[in-house]
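Hi F.,

I've been meaning to write this up properly since the lab meeting, where we talked about keeping a consistent format for the predictions we share between groups. The idea is simple: the sequence comes first, exactly as it goes in, then the C-alpha coordinates exactly as they come out, then a line or two of notes. No screenshots and no reformatting. I'm using this chain as the first example so we have something concrete to point to.
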Amino acid sequence: MVLLSANGLTNYFPLNIGLLIPGKDALEAKRGAELAISEANRQGGYGGHPFHLIVQSTEGLWGVGAKRSVSLVFEDSVLAILGSLDGRNAHLAEQVTTKTKVAFMSSQATDMTLSYAFVPWYFRCIPDDKQQATTLIEEIYKKRRLENVLLVGMDTYDSKHAIATFLKVTGSMNLSKPKQFLCGSTARDFEKILLENKTKSIDAFVLFGDPAFAADFMSFYRQYHMKQPVFGTLSLLGDQKAQFHNWHYLDNVVLVSSGQWFTKKGIGFQKKFQEKYGYPPSPVAAYAYDGIHVIIEAVKKAGPDRDKVIEALSTIRYFGSTGEIRFDEKGNRAGKARLMLVKNGVPSFFRTKQ
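Output, unedited:
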Protein backbone atom coordinates (compact mmCIF):
# COMPACT_ATOMS: atom_id res chain seq x y z
CA MET A 1 0.00 0.00 0.00
CA VAL A 2 1.45 3.37 -1.03
CA LEU A 3 0.58 6.51 0.90
CA LEU A 4 1.64 10.15 0.83
CA SER A 5 3.08 11.40 4.09
CA ALA A 6 2.53 14.89 5.45
CA ASN A 7 5.73 16.12 3.83
CA GLY A 8 4.69 14.82 0.43
CA LEU A 9 7.14 11.93 0.35
CA THR A 10 5.92 8.53 -0.69
CA ASN A 11 6.03 5.91 2.07
CA TYR A 12 5.22 2.23 2.00
CA PHE A 13 4.14 0.24 5.00
CA PRO A 14 2.74 -3.29 4.79
CA LEU A 15 0.03 -3.93 7.36
CA ASN A 16 2.36 -5.82 9.69
CA ILE A 17 1.98 -5.78 13.48
CA GLY A 18 4.77 -7.22 15.63
CA LEU A 19 4.32 -9.46 18.65
CA LEU A 20 7.13 -10.19 21.10
CA ILE A 21 6.71 -13.26 23.33
CA PRO A 22 9.12 -14.79 25.85
CA GLY A 23 9.44 -18.20 24.17
CA LYS A 24 8.12 -20.42 21.41
CA ASP A 25 5.87 -22.23 23.89
CA ALA A 26 4.37 -18.92 25.06
CA LEU A 27 1.07 -19.56 23.33
CA GLU A 28 -1.39 -17.52 25.39
CA ALA A 29 -0.49 -14.11 23.98
CA LYS A 30 0.13 -15.50 20.51
CA ARG A 31 -3.31 -17.07 20.34
CA GLY A 32 -5.05 -14.01 21.74
CA ALA A 33 -3.27 -11.82 19.17
CA GLU A 34 -4.00 -14.23 16.30
CA LEU A 35 -7.68 -14.21 17.18
CA ALA A 36 -7.75 -10.40 17.05
CA ILE A 37 -5.98 -10.36 13.67
CA SER A 38 -8.35 -12.93 12.17
CA GLU A 39 -11.39 -10.97 13.37
CA ALA A 40 -10.08 -7.73 11.86
CA ASN A 41 -9.36 -9.42 8.54
CA ARG A 42 -12.83 -10.96 8.39
CA GLN A 43 -14.14 -7.41 8.72
CA GLY A 44 -12.12 -6.30 5.69
CA GLY A 45 -8.77 -5.42 7.25
CA TYR A 46 -7.80 -1.91 6.19
CA GLY A 47 -9.39 -0.94 2.89
CA GLY A 48 -9.57 -4.60 1.90
CA HIS A 49 -5.91 -5.23 2.74
CA PRO A 50 -5.28 -7.85 5.46
CA PHE A 51 -3.27 -7.34 8.61
CA HIS A 52 -0.34 -9.67 9.29
CA LEU A 53 0.97 -10.74 12.69
CA ILE A 54 4.76 -11.12 12.84
CA VAL A 55 5.76 -13.09 15.94
CA GLN A 56 9.25 -13.01 17.44
CA SER A 57 10.50 -14.83 20.53
CA THR A 58 12.91 -13.22 22.99
CA GLU A 59 14.06 -16.65 24.17
CA GLY A 60 17.82 -17.05 24.44
CA LEU A 61 20.75 -15.04 25.75
CA TRP A 62 20.14 -11.70 27.48
CA GLY A 63 19.68 -9.00 24.86
CA VAL A 64 17.89 -11.15 22.29
CA GLY A 65 14.74 -9.09 22.81
CA ALA A 66 16.48 -5.99 21.47
CA LYS A 67 17.65 -7.85 18.35
CA ARG A 68 14.16 -9.22 17.71
CA SER A 69 12.69 -5.73 18.09
CA VAL A 70 15.18 -4.33 15.57
CA SER A 71 14.22 -7.11 13.17
CA LEU A 72 10.53 -6.28 13.50
CA VAL A 73 11.16 -2.57 12.87
CA PHE A 74 13.62 -2.73 9.97
CA GLU A 75 13.10 -6.11 8.31
CA ASP A 76 9.38 -6.57 8.80
CA SER A 77 8.42 -2.87 8.70
CA VAL A 78 5.82 -3.30 11.42
CA LEU A 79 3.43 -0.45 12.14
CA ALA A 80 3.57 -1.13 15.89
CA ILE A 81 4.81 -3.75 18.35
CA LEU A 82 2.87 -5.50 21.11
CA GLY A 83 5.07 -6.89 23.86
CA SER A 84 3.71 -9.70 26.02
CA LEU A 85 6.88 -9.78 28.09
CA ASP A 86 8.13 -9.51 31.64
CA GLY A 87 9.47 -6.18 32.85
CA ARG A 88 13.15 -6.74 32.02
CA ASN A 89 12.51 -7.81 28.43
CA ALA A 90 9.89 -5.10 27.96
CA HIS A 91 12.56 -2.53 28.85
CA LEU A 92 14.82 -3.85 26.08
CA ALA A 93 12.02 -3.67 23.51
CA GLU A 94 11.07 -0.19 24.71
CA GLN A 95 14.65 1.04 24.24
CA VAL A 96 14.61 -0.06 20.60
CA THR A 97 11.23 1.48 19.83
CA THR A 98 12.27 4.68 21.63
CA LYS A 99 15.14 5.13 19.18
CA THR A 100 13.18 4.05 16.10
CA LYS A 101 9.94 5.89 16.98
CA VAL A 102 7.64 2.91 16.55
CA ALA A 103 4.63 2.50 18.85
CA PHE A 104 5.25 -0.11 21.55
CA MET A 105 2.35 -1.48 23.58
CA SER A 106 2.94 -3.58 26.69
CA SER A 107 0.22 -6.13 27.44
CA GLN A 108 1.88 -7.99 30.32
CA ALA A 109 4.63 -5.99 32.07
CA THR A 110 3.26 -3.93 34.96
CA ASP A 111 6.57 -2.39 36.06
CA MET A 112 6.07 1.33 36.75
CA THR A 113 9.52 2.33 35.44
CA LEU A 114 8.52 1.48 31.86
CA SER A 115 6.59 4.74 31.69
CA TYR A 116 9.19 6.87 33.51
CA ALA A 117 10.98 7.76 30.25
CA PHE A 118 7.80 9.58 29.15
CA VAL A 119 8.18 8.39 25.55
CA PRO A 120 5.12 9.49 23.49
CA TRP A 121 5.02 6.18 21.62
CA TYR A 122 4.97 3.91 24.68
CA PHE A 123 1.58 2.50 25.77
CA ARG A 124 0.37 -0.08 28.29
CA CYS A 125 -3.03 -1.82 28.05
CA ILE A 126 -2.78 -3.62 31.41
CA PRO A 127 -3.13 -1.94 34.83
CA ASP A 128 0.33 -1.12 36.19
CA ASP A 129 1.71 -1.98 39.63
CA LYS A 130 0.51 1.28 41.17
CA GLN A 131 -3.07 0.83 39.94
CA GLN A 132 -3.16 -2.74 41.22
CA ALA A 133 -1.58 -1.80 44.55
CA THR A 134 -3.98 1.12 45.06
CA THR A 135 -7.02 -1.08 44.46
CA LEU A 136 -5.79 -3.78 46.84
CA ILE A 137 -4.78 -1.24 49.49
CA GLU A 138 -8.18 0.46 49.41
CA GLU A 139 -9.87 -2.90 50.01
CA ILE A 140 -7.45 -4.15 52.68
CA TYR A 141 -6.72 -1.00 54.68
CA LYS A 142 -9.61 1.36 54.00
CA LYS A 143 -12.63 -0.92 53.67
CA ARG A 144 -11.64 -3.91 55.82
CA ARG A 145 -9.48 -1.87 58.22
CA LEU A 146 -6.74 -4.51 58.31
CA GLU A 147 -3.33 -3.19 59.33
CA ASN A 148 -0.82 -6.00 59.83
CA VAL A 149 -0.22 -7.14 56.28
CA LEU A 150 2.40 -9.60 55.01
CA LEU A 151 3.53 -9.36 51.39
CA VAL A 152 4.74 -12.71 50.02
CA GLY A 153 6.49 -12.66 46.67
CA MET A 154 8.80 -14.50 44.35
CA ASP A 155 12.42 -13.42 44.18
CA THR A 156 12.04 -12.17 40.60
CA TYR A 157 12.31 -8.81 38.83
CA ASP A 158 8.56 -8.30 38.35
CA SER A 159 7.57 -9.48 41.82
CA LYS A 160 10.14 -7.28 43.54
CA HIS A 161 9.07 -4.21 41.56
CA ALA A 162 5.39 -4.87 42.37
CA ILE A 163 6.16 -5.20 46.08
CA ALA A 164 8.28 -2.04 46.04
CA THR A 165 5.36 -0.15 44.47
CA PHE A 166 2.93 -1.55 47.05
CA LEU A 167 5.21 -0.32 49.85
CA LYS A 168 5.54 3.09 48.21
CA VAL A 169 1.77 3.50 47.92
CA THR A 170 1.13 2.51 51.53
CA GLY A 171 3.82 4.98 52.58
CA SER A 172 2.24 7.79 50.56
CA MET A 173 -1.07 7.10 52.33
CA ASN A 174 0.58 7.06 55.80
CA LEU A 175 -0.60 3.48 56.38
CA SER A 176 1.07 0.77 58.44
CA LYS A 177 4.10 -0.51 56.57
CA PRO A 178 3.57 -4.12 55.46
CA LYS A 179 6.10 -6.81 56.24
CA GLN A 180 7.57 -8.58 53.24
CA PHE A 181 9.01 -12.00 52.47
CA LEU A 182 10.67 -12.94 49.18
CA CYS A 183 11.10 -16.62 48.51
CA GLY A 184 11.43 -19.36 45.96
CA SER A 185 8.63 -21.80 45.27
CA THR A 186 9.81 -24.36 47.83
CA ALA A 187 8.12 -26.16 50.68
CA ARG A 188 10.75 -24.90 53.14
CA ASP A 189 10.03 -21.27 52.28
CA PHE A 190 6.26 -21.57 52.56
CA GLU A 191 6.43 -23.56 55.80
CA LYS A 192 8.75 -20.95 57.30
CA ILE A 193 6.43 -18.09 56.36
CA LEU A 194 3.30 -19.74 57.67
CA LEU A 195 4.78 -21.25 60.84
CA GLU A 196 6.43 -17.96 61.78
CA ASN A 197 3.21 -16.03 61.29
CA LYS A 198 0.63 -18.55 62.50
CA THR A 199 0.81 -17.26 66.04
CA LYS A 200 1.49 -13.65 65.14
CA SER A 201 -1.10 -10.96 64.53
CA ILE A 202 -0.98 -11.03 60.74
CA ASP A 203 -4.29 -9.71 59.39
CA ALA A 204 -3.85 -10.53 55.68
CA PHE A 205 -1.51 -11.99 53.06
CA VAL A 206 -0.88 -10.41 49.67
CA LEU A 207 0.73 -12.64 47.02
CA PHE A 208 3.01 -11.52 44.16
CA GLY A 209 4.06 -14.22 41.72
CA ASP A 210 2.95 -16.67 39.07
CA PRO A 211 0.18 -19.33 39.19
CA ALA A 212 2.52 -22.14 40.31
CA PHE A 213 3.81 -19.98 43.16
CA ALA A 214 0.27 -19.15 44.27
CA ALA A 215 -0.85 -22.79 44.06
CA ASP A 216 2.05 -23.94 46.26
CA PHE A 217 1.49 -21.19 48.81
CA MET A 218 -2.25 -21.85 49.06
CA SER A 219 -1.64 -25.57 49.48
CA PHE A 220 0.44 -24.94 52.61
CA TYR A 221 -1.94 -22.16 53.70
CA ARG A 222 -4.77 -24.69 53.86
CA GLN A 223 -2.55 -27.41 55.31
CA TYR A 224 -1.78 -25.15 58.28
CA HIS A 225 -5.44 -24.08 58.57
CA MET A 226 -4.71 -20.38 58.19
CA LYS A 227 -7.72 -18.10 58.43
CA GLN A 228 -6.40 -14.71 57.32
CA PRO A 229 -7.80 -13.37 54.02
CA VAL A 230 -5.51 -13.70 50.99
CA PHE A 231 -5.21 -11.15 48.19
CA GLY A 232 -3.23 -11.22 44.96
CA THR A 233 -2.23 -9.39 41.80
CA LEU A 234 -3.10 -10.15 38.18
CA SER A 235 0.06 -12.21 37.72
CA LEU A 236 -1.45 -15.04 39.78
CA LEU A 237 -4.14 -15.63 37.16
CA GLY A 238 -2.13 -16.96 34.26
CA ASP A 239 1.18 -17.39 32.51
CA GLN A 240 2.09 -17.77 28.86
CA LYS A 241 1.74 -21.52 28.40
CA ALA A 242 -1.53 -22.75 26.94
CA GLN A 243 -3.33 -25.04 29.33
CA PHE A 244 -6.62 -25.50 31.10
CA HIS A 245 -6.63 -22.97 33.91
CA ASN A 246 -7.73 -24.74 37.07
CA TRP A 247 -8.14 -22.01 39.64
CA HIS A 248 -9.52 -24.08 42.50
CA TYR A 249 -6.26 -23.41 44.33
CA LEU A 250 -7.29 -19.72 44.41
CA ASP A 251 -10.72 -20.34 45.94
CA ASN A 252 -11.74 -17.49 48.27
CA VAL A 253 -8.75 -15.38 47.23
CA VAL A 254 -9.50 -11.75 46.29
CA LEU A 255 -7.61 -10.84 43.11
CA VAL A 256 -7.10 -7.94 40.78
CA SER A 257 -9.32 -8.76 37.80
CA SER A 258 -8.83 -8.33 34.07
CA GLY A 259 -12.62 -8.03 33.87
CA GLN A 260 -12.94 -10.34 30.88
CA TRP A 261 -15.41 -12.58 32.70
CA PHE A 262 -17.86 -9.77 33.42
CA THR A 263 -18.21 -7.79 30.18
CA LYS A 264 -20.21 -8.59 27.08
CA LYS A 265 -17.13 -8.38 24.88
CA GLY A 266 -15.13 -10.39 27.38
CA ILE A 267 -17.63 -13.22 27.45
CA GLY A 268 -17.76 -13.19 23.65
CA PHE A 269 -13.95 -13.32 23.46
CA GLN A 270 -13.83 -16.26 25.85
CA LYS A 271 -16.39 -18.18 23.81
CA LYS A 272 -14.50 -17.62 20.55
CA PHE A 273 -11.17 -18.51 22.16
CA GLN A 274 -12.64 -21.69 23.70
CA GLU A 275 -14.15 -22.76 20.37
CA LYS A 276 -10.89 -22.22 18.50
CA TYR A 277 -8.33 -23.55 20.98
CA GLY A 278 -10.33 -25.87 23.23
CA TYR A 279 -9.72 -24.20 26.59
CA PRO A 280 -10.65 -20.89 28.27
CA PRO A 281 -8.22 -17.97 27.91
CA SER A 282 -6.26 -16.43 30.75
CA PRO A 283 -5.80 -12.66 31.22
CA VAL A 284 -2.50 -12.95 29.30
CA ALA A 285 -4.47 -13.86 26.18
CA ALA A 286 -7.17 -11.27 26.88
CA TYR A 287 -4.74 -8.36 27.17
CA ALA A 288 -2.88 -9.44 24.02
CA TYR A 289 -6.22 -9.71 22.20
CA ASP A 290 -7.23 -6.23 23.32
CA GLY A 291 -3.79 -4.76 22.64
CA ILE A 292 -3.81 -5.93 19.02
CA HIS A 293 -7.36 -4.66 18.53
CA VAL A 294 -6.37 -1.24 19.90
CA ILE A 295 -3.44 -1.05 17.47
CA ILE A 296 -5.70 -2.08 14.59
CA GLU A 297 -8.25 0.58 15.54
CA ALA A 298 -5.48 3.17 15.52
CA VAL A 299 -4.39 2.06 12.04
CA LYS A 300 -7.97 2.24 10.78
CA LYS A 301 -8.29 5.73 12.22
CA ALA A 302 -4.94 7.12 11.09
CA GLY A 303 -3.87 4.95 8.16
CA PRO A 304 -0.76 2.76 7.95
CA ASP A 305 1.70 5.48 8.90
CA ARG A 306 3.83 4.95 12.00
CA ASP A 307 3.73 8.57 13.19
CA LYS A 308 -0.01 8.88 12.71
CA VAL A 309 -0.60 5.54 14.46
CA ILE A 310 1.18 6.95 17.52
CA GLU A 311 -1.03 10.06 17.44
CA ALA A 312 -4.17 7.93 17.12
CA LEU A 313 -3.20 5.68 20.03
CA SER A 314 -2.70 8.66 22.33
CA THR A 315 -6.34 9.71 21.93
CA ILE A 316 -8.02 6.36 21.36
CA ARG A 317 -10.94 5.07 23.39
CA TYR A 318 -11.65 1.40 22.84
CA PHE A 319 -14.01 -0.99 24.63
CA GLY A 320 -12.43 -4.44 24.66
CA SER A 321 -12.72 -7.75 26.47
CA THR A 322 -11.02 -6.23 29.53
CA GLY A 323 -13.16 -3.09 29.55
CA GLU A 324 -12.54 0.48 28.44
CA ILE A 325 -9.02 1.21 27.19
CA ARG A 326 -7.64 4.72 26.96
CA PHE A 327 -4.25 6.11 27.90
CA ASP A 328 -2.98 8.86 30.18
CA GLU A 329 -0.23 11.33 29.32
CA LYS A 330 2.46 8.72 30.10
CA GLY A 331 0.87 6.00 27.99
CA ASN A 332 -0.44 4.02 30.95
CA ARG A 333 -3.93 2.61 30.84
CA ALA A 334 -6.26 5.11 32.46
CA GLY A 335 -8.83 4.21 35.09
CA LYS A 336 -8.89 1.96 38.15
CA ALA A 337 -8.12 -1.71 38.51
CA ARG A 338 -10.99 -3.93 39.63
CA LEU A 339 -11.23 -6.89 41.99
CA MET A 340 -12.78 -10.32 41.77
CA LEU A 341 -13.22 -13.38 43.99
CA VAL A 342 -12.55 -16.97 42.92
CA LYS A 343 -15.34 -19.30 44.03
CA ASN A 344 -15.27 -23.03 43.24
CA GLY A 345 -12.54 -22.42 40.69
CA VAL A 346 -14.54 -19.76 38.83
CA PRO A 347 -13.97 -15.97 38.73
CA SER A 348 -16.89 -14.24 40.45
CA PHE A 349 -17.94 -10.63 40.54
CA PHE A 350 -16.56 -9.09 43.71
CA ARG A 351 -18.67 -7.11 46.14
CA THR A 352 -16.56 -5.43 48.76
CA LYS A 353 -17.23 -6.02 52.42
CA GLN A 354 -18.61 -3.02 54.25
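Notes:
Residues 256 and 339 are 4 Å apart (CA to CA).
Residues 283-302 form the longest helix (20 residues).

If this format works for you, I'll send the rest the same way.

G.
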